[in-house]
Design a protein that fits this description.
By secondary structure, this protein is mainly alpha-helical. Helices cover about 40% and strands about 5% of the residues. The protein is built from three helices and two strands; from the N terminus they run ββααα.
Amino acid sequence: MENLLTRITLNPEICHGKPTIRGLRYPVENMLELLASGMTIEELLEDYPDLEHKDFLACLNYASKLAHVKSIHRMAS
């Protein structure tokens, strides 16, 4: 089975180094926001034909991994 996280890439030359999908200029953050707003993967596939169903699963998997942090510390503002 393919490791979905291999679809999430980090490149300082693309989107200011934010995590993107397969090196394309689609930040994971944006795709997660669209999913959270209620859009379905099928709707997103229609809007973003360059992407695949597994790309959105990879975004969700990435977010899940980030949620497994051991502790959260407040930073000075």
